[in-house]
Amino acid sequence: MRSLVFVAGLLLTPHISIAQSVSGRISSSTIGTEESVSYTLEISDADASDIQTPNPPDAQGLTLISGNPSRSTNMSIINGQVSTSVSYTWHYRPDNEGEAQILETQITVGEQSFTTEPIIITVVPQSQRPQTQSRRRSPFGGFSLFDDPDPVAPPAEITEQDIFIRANQSSPQAFLNEQVTIDYTLYFRPWTSPRNSRQADSWDAEGFWREELDLSDNQNVQVVVENGIQYQTVTIRRVAVFPTRPGELSIDPLSIAAEVRPPSGNPFSSPFFSTPYTTIERASAPINILSKPLPANAPNGFNGAVGQYSLETKLNQTELDVGEALQLSLTISGTGNIALIETPEPDFPGIFEIYDPEVDVSKMTTGNLIAGAKTFTWLLIPRTNGTFQIPNIEFVYFDPSDSDYVVLTSELDPITVTGSSATPVATASTASGFPVDDIAIIKRDSKWISANQSPLHQQKWFYLLLIIPVIGLGVTAIMSRRIRRIETDTAWARNRKAHPMARKHLKNARNLLREDHPDKFYGALEQAILGFLGNRLNISERGLTRMQLISVLSEIGVPDQGQQELVSFLDTCDAARFAPVPPEKSLMHDHLRTAGLILSSLGHEIESIRS
Question: Is the dihedral of CA 506, 509, 510, 511 positive or negative?
Answer without folding.
Answer: positive
